[in-house]
Automatic annotation (TrEMBL):
InterPro entries: Cro/C1-type_HTH, Lambda_DNA-bd_dom_sf. It holds the Pfam family HTH_3. This is Transcriptional regulator. One of its GO terms (molecular function) is DNA binding. It comes from the Bacteria. Residues 10-64 form the HTH cro/C1-type domain. Gene3D superfamilies: lambda repressor-like DNA-binding domains. It comes from Flavilitoribacter nigricans (strain ATCC 23147 / DSM 23189 / NBRC 102662 / NCIMB 1420 / SS-2).
Amino acid sequence: MANKKEVNRVKAVLKEQGRSQSWLAEKLGYTFATVNGWCNNRNQPYLVDIVRMAELLEVAPADLIVDGAKKGKGLTESQAFTEFS
């Protein structure tokens, strides 16, 4: 699965903070399998769970989400203004 699309950064933020998936699962009250699915982008957390994770990890919710525009998948600012003005 080399071309797996990343939607969230949960695994990266946990690694940056030296925290484990088991720790997050326990704090959220979910199973390890649920959190592991999020960390490996097999499943995606609900927005309410992203907010709860952000509070636990002391980051902004946006830090847990991959910005598609930064990967060149969205419209550039100039395209957005040109095409929709």
